[in-house]
Amino acid sequence: MSDRIVLTRMVFVGRHGVIAGERLEDQPFEVDVELYLDLGPAGMTDDLAKTIDYREVFELCRATIEGPSHLLLEALAESIASGLLTRFAAGGVGEVKVRVRKPEVALPGLIESAEVEITRRA
């Protein structure tokens, strides 16, 4: 499937990390998602019911980042991917790509961010 919905640079505040202090203080996380599905019906009818509501995708990502702490970015990405595939399976989403970035990663030097990217299929 070549059609996709893409939401990029969603920013949420969470408490995740391997170092205990990272789970005590709020820090920003960025999330990108790509949902692969047939967008033809929505494009031809201009009907929201025939596609995925971006607000629901945004809220699922927010709930994951703002929810219980995880040690790893990998776990956050898996949780988001699993949630998206489960929530939107009936809407025709068969594959998702999720990127989670941590701009304030605790490393002993200059770094823009740490990021993981995963692709999962239903």
3D structure, described in words:
Strands 1-2-3-4 form a 4-stranded antiparallel sheet, with helices on one face. It is built from 3 helices and 4 strands, in the order ββαααββ. 29% of the residues lie in helices and 30% in strands. It is α+β, with helices and mostly antiparallel strands. It has helices at residues 40-45, 54-66, 73-88, and strands at residues 4-14, 27-36, 95-102, 114-121. The model has no long low-confidence stretch (mean pLDDT 96). The protein is elongated.
Strand order of the largest sheet: 1-2-3-4
Q: Helical proportion?
A: 25-40%
Shape: elongated
How many E strands? Answer: 4
Instruction: Please identify the structural class as seen in this structure.
Output: alpha+beta
Q: Spell out the helices and strands N to C.
A: EEHHHEE
The average pLDDT value, as a whole number, equals 96
Please outline what is shown here:
The chain has 122 residues and is of the alpha+beta class.
Note the topology:
Layout: E1 4-14, E2 27-36, H1 40-45, H2 54-66, H3 73-88, E3 95-102, E4 114-121
Antiparallel strand pairs: 1-2, 2-3, 3-4
Helix pairs in contact: 2-3
What labels describe this entry?
single chain, 122 residues, alpha+beta, four-stranded antiparallel beta sheet, elongated
